[in-house]
Design brief:
It is a single chain. By secondary structure, the chain is α/β, with parallel strands linked by helices. The protein folds into 2 domains: 49 residues; 248 residues, Rossmann fold. Strands 1-2-4-3-5-6-7-8 form an 8-stranded mixed beta sheet, with helices on both faces. Helix 6 packs across helix 7. The longest helix is centred in the N-terminal third of the chain and has 35 residues. The protein is elongated and about 90 Å long.
Length: 305
Amino acid sequence: MNTSARSSPARSAAASSPQQRVISAAIRVARVTLVAYIVWLVALWFVQDRMLFLPQVAGIGLTEDAISAEPRIARRWLAQDDGVETEAWLVRALPTGRTPRGLVVFTHGNAELIDHALHEAEEWTQRGYDVLLPEYRGYGRTPGTPGEARIVADVLAHLDAELAANGARPVVLHGRSLGTGVAAQVAARIAKRDAKRDGSTETPTTIAALILESPFTSIASFAASYGAPAFIVRNPFRTDHVLPDLACPILILHAREDEVVPIAHARTLGALQPRAVLIELDGSHNSGLSADAAYWSAIDRLIGE
């Protein structure tokens, strides 16, 4: 008698037991979930820059006639090392009979242009500072595609060109929102560059202060909210990595009710840098912190006004 043929139905029944069916179903679900997650990460990889940089929200800015009507705006177009010409404005300090106290480099927020920073520029000029407003690639009238490395390099090139043209003077880096990531990276690049110049005859760039308005610890830190690992972020803007090593005075300004970048980011940055001063203000991310008297009072204390 063929005993093996008689036992095969039992084996088949055992293979399709409830436990095995549950395991097989779980494996299928895990495979589908894994494939869906990989598809999600691939999609994020390709669309992340459009999610981060919002030049279309910023608009096109002032007309050529309106810019020409601003007598104190000196427009600068600079051919970068890859041939792309980027725009910057220089707003001169109000005439006081003395040389400017320094140069402020103001790096604007995401859905903004240099055109939207004239209020802050005016406040700085009243304090005796020239103000450089560099535009980001892909924003306003500046062509190209935005990205951390290119924006930081472009801003640094405009700063170097201004100092070379009009003389070395103390530099205040003032960034807002997305611009805080730019300003922090520019400060780190300058510090690293000047460290390499030790013993050379080149004049180092003096960073008098770094002001971070509505800063984030990093763009990479937002990846988790999309279920993605931080390493997937192509433009991480790791302010949390560079801030502890900066030697210049640092002022952090942040709204307690900020709904875009929670104030926990500012508190974390303040804890990373013992020399940093954190000022918590009333308002939200887009409520216009610079209209608050406490905002400029904190800046005045920083610069010794």
